[in-house]
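Researcher: Re-running this chain for the archive, since the previous output was lost when a drive failed. Same request as before.
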Amino acid sequence: MKTRKQEYGNTNIVGKNIERLRKEKGIKQKDFVSKMQTMGLDINPTSYSKLEGQVRLATDKEVFIAAHILGVSTQTLFDGAENEFVIE
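Model: Regenerated structure tokens:
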């Protein structure tokens, strides 16, 4: 399994969890992108990589479809966010 070459960014919350869950399920990045495309999402491998790396925003469609492919709730993709922000 490849290790991440660059540090995570801070542009989205879900990227790190999507990457972790995808790897736990043994899905290759290119296969995940293909599944997203099959579900009607216009995304390329570079854009997806930036989503996982948290260097670009994630759209609501991307979050919804990623959760569906991973078999988790959308809320699961946001797990840990409470540690990154002060929520009152």
